[in-house]
Design goal:
Length: 297
């Protein structure tokens, strides 16, 4: 069964940018696109005749209809469907995400700050969906996925920007690598694999040798986990960045010119809270390009 790309819509600029990105991703993956709008009235809009629900029901229908019209005009090749779900936004999106190939959400921009804030709904959804979730900020356009043309101007005809993935070879990377390599392959884009390491505390006299040893060990560990993926995706150009430092900062630096950043999120048994891990949390708030958060065991 072919699962769709799913996008959550609330009528905001961020969710419309997410819908455009999701439509392009559906085209790349040859998948249908499903639009989901959460209806918090407690019953289906079609079942309720309460006058006080008429206005929000009208706006809910308008959000979906407007998005459908917009996407049909821009991406006529994509098979579209739309649903109003009578649940709270996090519950509706988590349920829809579980039946998706990937879930796409909009992200709000910080006022006067260069990063972006996922918001409580997106954070709650990312923390509980067992499928990849992509966060897209307002203003993202198709040309932002591509390098500038030879004259330095935005273009959709130039090659795709790199896909960047942050990994820790000490943890399971299969799902994260599968998403990152496939995303790079679909775009014919290079893949930059980033691994940051930290030196444990030790006497100063031992630091220089220990630093060299840890660097070499980190490089060998990353090469080992990458080897089967390089073989599986021979057309993907892979570069590695293995440096000492904080993982979040290394990813922020590496993603400055990226078209997509992918990070992992440890699946937690608890259903409460919105914990995503410090690295995923940091990049969701501060990276400009779309961010894919991929859960793993």
């Amino acid at each position: 069964m072919r699962h769709p790309v799913v996008v959550g819509l609330d009528g905001s600029r961020e969710s419309l940018a997410a819908a455009d990105w999701a439509a392009r991703e559906a085209l790349r993956r040859d998948l249908p696109l499903r639009l989901v709008h959460a209806w918090e009235g407690g019953v289906s809009p079609a079942e309720s005749e309460l006058p006080e629900l008429e206005a929000p029901r009208y706006w809910a229908r308008r959000i979906l209809r407007g998005a459908m019209d917009r996407l049909n005009e821009r991406y006529p090749q994509v098979y579209l469907s739309a649903d109003q779900v009578p649940r709270s936004a996090p519950d509706a999106l988590v349920a829809a995400g579980e039946e998706s190939e990937l879930l796409v959400l909009g992200s709000r921009a910080f006022s006067g700050i260069g990063g972006f804030m996922a918001g409580s709904v997106a954070l709650a959804t990312v923390a509980h969906v067992a499928r990849p979730v992509v966060l897209v900020r307002a203003g993202q356009a198709s040309e932002d996925e591509h390098l500038p043309d030879e004259n330095g101007r935005p273009s959709t005809r130039s090659p795709y920007r790199p896909v960047v993935v942050g990994v820790d070879p000490a943890h399971r990377c299969e799902d994260l690598f599968a998403f990152a390599f496939e995303s790079a392959r679909l775009r014919a884009a290079p893949l930059k694999v980033v691994h940051a390491w930290r030196l444990p505390y030790m006497p100063t006299a031992l630091e220089a040798k220990a630093r060299r040893d840890v660097q070499r060990a980190a490089e060998r560990a990353l090469d080992a986990v990458l080897a089967p993926w390089r073989e599986k995706y021979p057309t993907v150009q892979v570069t590695t960045v293995v440096e000492e430092g904080r993982p979040a900062q290394q990813l922020l630096d590496a993603a400055q010119d990226a078209g997509l950043l992918a990070v992992g999120r440890r699946i937690r048994p608890a259903k409460l809270g919105t914990h995503t891990g410090p690295v995923a949390h940091a990049v969701m708030h501060h990276v400009h390009c779309p961010v894919a958060v991929v859960p793993h065991g």
